[in-house]
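Design request, tokens follow.
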């Protein structure tokens, strides 16, 4: 009898039977409020009727046309649809299947466009599991361990983590930028540096918004030295933070934007967007892949963009996100024996748990997650030390569902802490 690989670990023991909206039904007969969204993927909820309709209709026409052979209508229509939501300067798109694949495409483009070898990422960033993307990842050592050597030319710079360093945000930004300038002098000369790659909001690294002044500092150095600025919005894009793209919180447009996850409501498609003048610097034949821009996934993405617009889901994410933050702040006040902090943007919020000595308490985070599951709420942990519970409901979440989820979360904390 064949089995799944034993190293594929799930946070729960559930087997899902069906899903609708913010809810999943397991084979045990129980329904669960899903505040994981497939790790920020099911942006329009499970089985949104418009997505289902689009997928069914496209599957009856054509499922796959390799776009090195011929183009298909969903790919062209998706490109037009993305043009309505992307920054105007990012007018050229390459499609992949997964986030990691899109990260690899961004790296390749940056190196080809600049003729430089080095890519600088930032501590706590998560960019994927392939060799190149894992080389830029520092959210968890398990992603990059055990299959060295990794890609050459990948360097990790300091991220302005004010809470970890016990600094104010301004102090942390100044320190991190000074460390970056030192990295230029000691390790990667700007003339050898092709790009910075950063998540505007750290994902697996702990749901930490990057400070505005740090992004501005990166932009200033990028412009000074001819370095490309890459925003990895795989997890924080497509309305998740209460704006269509997290970059809009910073008033900075990157040279390359990476998107995936929530763009197609659960169907595998990803991409990079860049100015056409930059995209033309990729070498002929350097972009492609068998399933890239799959017709069914593209149809799902078109429908997702339409649903987000027609149902005002970006606005809902902002409103519900504000309510979520207020609930989490109140929850911290209600449980004064709990050492933690709350951070995030929109419907991308994290709560980090510590022990009495302010050391990361991953065990407490996992116990609370497990108890929440027992009471019918699905959550995930993240962070470099596994002590952050991330809360990422679908963008369609209602006020009532959010309140229900927070009631369960509070009850789970009370059950664990006593």
């Amino acid at each position: 009898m064949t089995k799944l690989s034993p190293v594929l670990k799930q946070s729960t023991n559930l087997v899902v039977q069906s899903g609708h909206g913010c809810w999943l039904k397991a084979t045990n007969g129980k329904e669960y409020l899903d505040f994981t969204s497939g790790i920020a993927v099911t942006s329009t909820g499970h089985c949104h009727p418009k997505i289902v309709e689009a997928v069914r209709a496209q599957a009856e026409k054509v499922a796959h046309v390799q776009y090195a052979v011929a183009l298909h209508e969903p790919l062209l229509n998706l490109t037009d649809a993305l043009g309505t939501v992307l920054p105007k300067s990012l007018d050229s798109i390459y499609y992949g299947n997964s986030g990691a694949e899109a990260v690899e495409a961004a790296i390749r483009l940056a190196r080809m466009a600049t003729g430089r070898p080095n890519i600088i990422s930032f501590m706590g960033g998560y960019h994927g599991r392939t060799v190149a993307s894992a080389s830029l990842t520092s959210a968890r050592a398990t992603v990059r361990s055990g299959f060295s050597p990794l890609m050459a030319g990948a360097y990790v710079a300091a991220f302005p983590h004010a809470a970890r360093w016990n600094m104010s945000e301004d102090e942390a930004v100044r320190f991190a930028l000074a460390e970056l300038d030192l990295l230029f002098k000691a390790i990667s000369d700007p003339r050898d540096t092709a790009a910075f790659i950063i998540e505007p909001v750290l994902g697996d690294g702990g749901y930490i918004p990057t400070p505005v002044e740090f992004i501005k500092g990166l932009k200033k150095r990028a412009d000074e030295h001819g370095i490309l600025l890459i925003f990895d919005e795989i997890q924080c894009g497509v309305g998740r933070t209460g704006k269509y793209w997290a970059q809009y919180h910073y008033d900075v447009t990157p040279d390359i934007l990476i998107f995936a996850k929530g763009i197609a409501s659960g169907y595998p498609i990803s991409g990079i967007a860049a100015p056409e003048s930059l995209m033309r610097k990729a070498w002929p034949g350097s972009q492609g892949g068998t399933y890239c821009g799959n017709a069914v996934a593209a149809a799902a993405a078109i429908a997702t963009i339409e649903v987000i617009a027609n149902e005002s889901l970006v606005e809902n994410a902002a409103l519900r996100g504000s309510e979520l933050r207020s609930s989490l702040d109140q929850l911290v006040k209600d449980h004064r024996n709990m050492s933690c902090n709350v951070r995030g943007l929109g419907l991308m919020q994290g709560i980090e748990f510590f022990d009495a000595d302010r050391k990361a308490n991953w065990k407490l985070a996992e116990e609370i997650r497990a108890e929440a599951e027992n009471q019918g709420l699905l959550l995930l942990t993240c962070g470099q030390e596994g002590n952050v519970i991330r809360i990422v409901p679908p963008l369609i979440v209602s006020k009532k569902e959010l309140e229900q989820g927070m009631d369960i979360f509070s009850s789970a904390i009370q059950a664990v802490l006593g």
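Comment from the thread starter after seeing the answer: thanks! DSSP finds 14 helices and 15 strands in the chain.
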